[in-house]
Write a structure and sequence with these properties.
Structural class: mainly beta
Number of strands: 40
Radius of gyration: 25 Å
Mean pLDDT: 91
Distance between the termini: 36 Å
Strand content: over 45%
Shape: globular
Low-confidence stretches: 1-29
Length: 674
Amino acid sequence: MIHSGRLLLAASTLAFPAVPANAAGDQGPDDEPVIVVTGTGLPDTPSTPAYDTQTLDRETLVSTASGRIEDALSAVGGFQQFRRSDSRSSNPSAQGVTLRALGGNASSRAQILLDGVPMADPFFGYIPFSAIVPERLGSARVTRGGGSGPFGSGALAGTIELSSADAGELGLFDGRALANHRGETEIGATLVPRLGAGYVAVSGRWDRGQGFFTTPAEQRVPATARAAYDAWSAQVRAVAPLAPDIELQARVLAYRDDRTLRFRGADTGMEGHDGSLRIVGRGRWQFDVVGYVQARNFTNTVISSTLFVPTLDQRNTPATGIGGKIELRPPTPGNHVLRLGLDYRRASGELYEEAISVVTGAVTQSRNAGGTTSDFGLFVENDVTLGNLVLTGGVRADRWDIRDGFYTARAPSGDVIAADRYPDRAGWDLSLRGGAVWQAGNDLQFRAAAYTGLRLPTLNELYRPFTVVRLTTRANASLRNERLEGYEAGLDWTVLPGVSLALTAFDNTVKNAVANVTIGPDLRQRRNIDAIRARGIEANAALSFGRFELAGSVGLTDAEARGSGVAAALDGRRPAQTPRWTAGATASWRPADGALVSLTMRHVGLQFEDDLESDRLPAVTTFDAFARVPIGGGLAVILRAENLADAAIVTRNQGGSIDLGTPRTVWAGLALRL
């Protein structure tokens, strides 16, 4: 595992080479350029609007009722986690993200990037949301669809680009402390000293609480436990100039998150130590070079739902992700922007678990499984501007590799019960994407795009079986890569000053989609089904009049699975956990400088727990509230309320065994900004 102290030392050393003292000022001698660091990547290309994008600003990210990044991203119609729970009361392995109802399993089909670094867990593919603190961010841009292109394999349903806040947005100090009516607490702070021409942002956050009962009152037993949680995240991010038009960005992130789910002893945990370096050049030859390493782990104890004793101890799941990206934008004629690049990601990991007798409590079997996947991609993309028309086209080639897969089971005596070694596999896949944007007037633009993409199965899908309550899901080492084919068309219209509308119609198909296919009573296996096809409409609208704003997003999707053979029963059905409707809207009022009052509505339509549509998750609408009231000296009172109407949010339904999401929760606290 990577030692965070060593990463911090390396990052600090690299981030702050010798910088002339006068570079720190706003202006220097006439013969020296003023150095300005931004902490961002390269600027957007002209083709960015060709794809269906929605950007959330910093205020949207930090003013949610829950204080969670996944809650903020839910403002985008079509954004979906595998389950409705947030990162305080869900199993981390279920925190996969998708867009456009291209779900059906818990691995992410959307690419999540933090300053250009993929955040998905190398083994499971889930997103460690509790480690991504909203107060550290400046913006989030969500691209629904769009294909792999320069974003890398894994960008199947879309890409979510999280960008860190700069020194100006953060201020010298930004902190907050809140508590809710259950006695749970949230404490976080960021200190941003200027060093030479650069800066360092040191931040930490700690969330803890007894949690709520996810089990309905009528289903509780003496062994039922609250969804307790205890999570911390610490980060150091440094930005410094190497030259007037070149800057270095370094990050060290460490986190741990422990949760209890449903029964006493059903404890789950995740931890990570991540480090990354990024060099961005904004001169005549523009470039963006990123390298990263991630050391992650996951633990989980499964408790019998009838005898309430341990049945499985998933004691250790170490995984390592390493990778990087190089993008080059050479000088081109004025109406062209050319992007050339390559990227690489390697994921390796193993699971260590023991099956336990419910009668004696003794270990009955020890299991060890794992393997390695890698992807090396080459991409080229060109934009050309012809008056009011922008055309873009790109091609990507991926060399993928799945190797060293194994599964071993031993008896307590050490005798081998199973010793499977799976064949290595490798190949090339080609992805294409293209689009157009036509500026029909100052206030109206039309866009269209078509694209393909690729996602490798995760190590979890390939090699790790798991059990939830009494339902067992088997792994499948023979899974094939998922392939996306999609197209869309839309418009962006500023109807009046302060009134805007965006509308997109799309048709996306994921071939060889990995799904948890029912193969027997309380038994599923991960299988490639023929496809998941999603067709729908996405709409965003915003109104701004003085101190009042209203913003909303809605997604309407007709998604269906296509299956044959053992998966024939799925054919024509909606994929598991996939709603037809998702919607959200926020009304906000700024009565004074620094003050904010907002009310947010979220709606998620009917979903089904399983692939056969037998267990329903009813539609639910929730209302949240947020208020920030300055009281002077940089101090403000923060009030938050989750699920104001105390709606019943069903997050799991397996044969009538129910889990519930966050009930009404009221928070109060103070925030200080200097």
